[in-house]
């Protein structure tokens, strides 16, 4: 047995002939490389003995190859499958995982520099079902992130392009040396998360105590360690992690392709979200009375304007003023006005806040292209004469 051979060569005295290294000048044989390229090495994940010949017949039957295949045992639980067609080899790899007698068969490519005793199987692909996935998390980007979290994402079941099924199905390369994941927390919104349950298809034998695939709880070393420390034996895993094999009822290829095109249309014609009243980004106005409190900009100096002098009964000062209707130039000094229209002198009492200059009083101003009110997005403009301050 290979495992019975000593591995510590420091304790072995090698002869001169045994110490020599050969093969340095040899060239790799192309025929040997081609044979390795068409081969796969595999193992049945079990610690119990099994019927090798029955396993061979079962694999040949379920693989349904176009060409021949030869399955040779290197060790009691290590075999090589020699294919004679690249298409058959790829079909077997793509069709993983494979099972025999409810036990997972791990298969991988051969490294020509390895010895059979150095072959280890750390990962295996499995179909995982995500149950009760939130509606907003059934997109491809999120599912790829979930697959990489569980192990290595491989593919999504494309028979349901819209993703509105009872569960989401994906193939993931998982670490067979670690406990199975029973679920995961998925972020929704900004400050909450939801638990998503995981199930594994064709999962038969595994350890209900530690959740690993390569043994059962009857031969679990982790359970033995717990019992030696008088710890409570709690089975954290169970048959509820199993999912029955998916039924082979498939939609017609034309129907699947049609749904894919419809989904592409949904993605390309995505509507802009219209905010509701309670949305923090929505623009909301106050009562109408607030909008009536118009704010006018101060008059620009040295510009012509339309004015009409009138009096109001407030805090008065008696001044000599001119009443004028028309366009005037208020930049002239000495109380003079220049412009077109009718002008007359009068003695009138006017409030202090309406005395803008020595010669004119602005009580009503023509509104033309003037912003009356706004909320930063919508603006109200006016054309005409403004109202007196007491009526605003």
Your description of this structure?
The protein is of the alpha+beta class and 392 residues long. The protein is built from eight helices and 16 strands. The strands form four sheets. Strands 6, 7, 8, 9, 10 and 11 form a six-stranded mixed sheet that branches. β10 (192-201), α6 and β11 (242-243) form a beta-alpha-beta unit. Residues 304-313 and 354-364 have low confidence and may be disordered.
What is the topology?
Layout (H helix, E strand, L loop, with lengths): L15 H4 L10 H8 L1 E6 L7 H12 L5 E7 L2 E6 L2 H9 L3 E3 L2 E7 L13 E9 L8 H11 L1 E5 L10 E9 L7 E6 L3 E10 L19 H8 L13 E2 L9 H16 L19 H5 L12 E3 L8 E14 L8 E14 L14 E9 L4 E7 L7
Parallel strand pairs: 10-11
Antiparallel strand pairs: 1-3, 1-5, 2-3, 4-5, 6-8, 6-10, 7-8, 9-10, 12-13, 13-14, 15-16
Key phrases:
392 residues, alpha+beta, Alpha-Beta Plaits, 3 domains, six-stranded mixed β-sheet, five-stranded antiparallel β-sheet
Could you name the ranges where pLDDT drops below 50 across 5 or more consecutive residues? 304-313, 354-364
Summing up helix and strand content along with how strands pair, one would put the structural category as alpha+beta
The count of domains is 3
Spell out the helices and strands N to C: HHEHEEHEEEHEEEEHEHHEEEEE
User: Termini separation (Å)?
Assistant: 104 Å
Query: Strand percentage, roughly?
Result: 25-35%
Major sheet description: 6 strands, mixed
Secondary structure: helix percent: 10-25%
Number of strands: 16
Number of helices: 8
Average pLDDT: 76
Radius of gyration: 43 Å
Q: Which descriptor suits the 3D outline?
A: elongated
């Amino acid at each position: 047995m290979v495992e019975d051979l000593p591995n510590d060569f420091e304790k072995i005295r090698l002869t001169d002939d045994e110490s020599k290294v050969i093969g340095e000048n040899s060239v790799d044989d192309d025929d040997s490389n081609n044979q390795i390229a068409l081969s796969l090495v595999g193992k049945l994940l079990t610690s119990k003995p099994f019927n090798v010949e029955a396993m061979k017949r079962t694999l040949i039957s379920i693989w349904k190859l176009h060409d021949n295949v030869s399955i040779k045992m290197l060790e009691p639980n290590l075999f090589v499958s020699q294919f004679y067609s690249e298409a058959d080899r790829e079909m077997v790899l793509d069709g993983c995982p494979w099972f025999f007698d409810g036990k997972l068969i791990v298969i991988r490519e051969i490294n020509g520099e390895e010895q059979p005793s150095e072959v280890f199987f750390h990962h295996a692909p499995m179909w995982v079902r995500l149950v009760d996935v939130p509606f907003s998390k059934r997109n491809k980007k999120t599912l790829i992130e979930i697959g990489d979290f569980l192990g290595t994402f491989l593919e999504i079941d494309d028979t349901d392009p819209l993703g509105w099924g009872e569960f989401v199905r994906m193939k993931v390369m998982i670490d067979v040396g670690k406990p199975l994941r029973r679920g995961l927390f998925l972020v929704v919104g900004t400050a909450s998360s939801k638990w998503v349950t995981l199930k594994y298809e064709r999962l038969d034998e595994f350890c209900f105590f530690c959740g690993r695939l390569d043994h059962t709880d009857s031969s679990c070393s982790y359970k033995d360690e717990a019992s030696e420390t008088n710890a409570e034996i709690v089975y954290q895993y169970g048959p509820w992690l199993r999912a029955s094999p998916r039924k082979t009822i498939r939609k017609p290829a034309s129907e699947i392709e049609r749904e894919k095109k419809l989904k592409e249309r949904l993605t390309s014609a995505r509507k802009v979200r219209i905010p509701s009243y309670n949305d923090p980004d929505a623009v909301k106005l106050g009562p109408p009375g607030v909008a009536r409190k118009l704010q006018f900009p101060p008059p620009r100096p040295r510009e012509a304007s339309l004015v009409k002098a009138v009096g109001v009964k407030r805090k008065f000062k008696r001044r000599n003023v001119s009443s004028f209707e028309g366009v005037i130039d208020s930049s002239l000094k000495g109380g003079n006005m220049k412009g077109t229209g009718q002008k007359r002198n009068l003695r009138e009492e006017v409030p202090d806040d309406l005395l803008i200059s020595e010669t004119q009083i602005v009580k009503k101003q023509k509104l033309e292209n003037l912003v009356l009110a706004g909320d930063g997005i919508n603006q109200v403009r006016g054309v005409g004469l403004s109202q007196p301050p007491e009526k605003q």
